[in-house]
Amino acid sequence: MKEIDIYKTILHPSPEVIYKDKNSKFLGYAFPVTNEEQIKEYIESLKKRHHSARHWCYAWQLGTENKLYRANDDGEPNNSAGQPIFGQIQSHELTNILIVVVRYFGGVKLGVGGLITAYKTAAQLAVEASKIVEKTIEKELIIAFDYDNMNKVMRIIKENNLNIIKQNFEIKCEIILSVRKKDATTIFNLFNSAYKITVKWL
After folding, report:
1. Of 52, 60, 58, nearest to 25 (Cα)?
2. Which of 50, 100, 103, 163 could be bridged to 55 by S-S, CB 3.0 to 4.6 A?
3. What angle do CA 60, 123, 117 make, to 5 degrees?
4. pTM of this prediction?
């Protein structure tokens, strides 16, 4: 079975999109994120920007293999907001993304069905306004060796066009490499079989 080592995310924050129903306004935003700290910051900044809104509902997903996700209704009826937003993340197969829908209440209740449609549509519009990109899942390796083996290590790196993230050539030489997941085991074995070079997963 072919190993999947690509994932989809968005490149930049989306422009603001708007969906209206019975005087209620639903503003949709999508953000590329890599950690929960960023998620918190984006939500806080939208709460400040739209301080007179009634609800700030959102869903996010992080990670490429062991995914984390959350959906929040923020006071709307259970599963009428966060879940429909999260549904758009799933149907577009996205990760490392936060979608927030800000609601300004227009005085007329929409009912659960109306809310589901509104939050889903605002989330969908935010995704459609974003640039979706495919990225590769990377693994990191740490290579340790003596100066005498520098040329050998550099030759393997050059021949396989590997990406150096960090290097330290003080007492002992260490290089951290980022390797595409599907090539990671092959590259690991190349270093592992070389004399006087130690390699481990980071």
Report:
1. 52
2. 103
3. 120
4. 0.81
Amino acid at the residue 100: V
Using 50, 70 and 90 to split pLDDT, how confident is the model at 88? very high
Q: Is residue 1 part of a domain?
A: no
CB atoms within 10 A of CB 38: 16
SS3 state at 179: strand
HSE toward the beta carbon, residue 147, CA cutoff 13 A? 3
Q: What is the CATH number of the domain that holds 170?
A: 3.30.70.260
Contact yes or no for 57/119 (Cβ under 8 A): yes
| Boundary-marking domain end, from 94, 110, 135 | 135
What residue type is assigned to position 151 of the chain?
N
- Residue 171's pLDDT band, with cuts at 50, 70 and 90, is confident
What one-letter code names the amino acid at 173? C
**What pLDDT shows up at residue 1?**
45
